[in-house]
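In the design runs reported in the main text, the only information available to the sequence generator was the tokenized backbone. The following block is the verbatim input for one such run; it is reproduced so that readers can re-run the procedure and compare outputs position by position.
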């Protein structure tokens, strides 16, 4: 089982940057594909970015390409989401997601608020 704890959220002006971190418990972090999702008020949760267990493959939602970068440090059991050129429409609760490679076991963090002011 994996526990995920997000940090790094907050309030930022449009055009600014934030870096989210997600720290995972356990000794098998490198056995998990990781991702970020977000949910804005009144909207469904949506996919933001994915990184595979080794960090060798990443996928982004179209609206985040070129602005967001997902990365991971398996030695630190942490996945990151660098968010640049933030827009008010990026305001949401951001959730860290883990899925054990080759299984359907998945875990979610508690979420962290990101607010972008115009």
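Verbatim output:
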């Amino acid at each position: 089982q994996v526990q995920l704890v997000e940090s790094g959220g907050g309030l930022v002006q449009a055009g600014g940057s934030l870096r989210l971190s997600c720290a995972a418990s356990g000794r098998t972090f490198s056995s998990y594909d990781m991702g970020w999702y977000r949910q804005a008020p009144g909207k469904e949760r949506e996919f933001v970015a994915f990184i595979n267990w080794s960090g060798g493959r990443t996928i982004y939602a179209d609206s985040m390409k070129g602005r967001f970068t997902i990365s991971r440090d398996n030695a630190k059991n942490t996945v990151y989401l660098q968010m640049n050129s933030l827009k008010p429409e990026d305001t949401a609760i951001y959730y860290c997601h883990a899925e054990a490679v080759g299984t359907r076991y998945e875990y979610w963090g508690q979420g962290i608020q990101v607010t972008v002011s115009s």
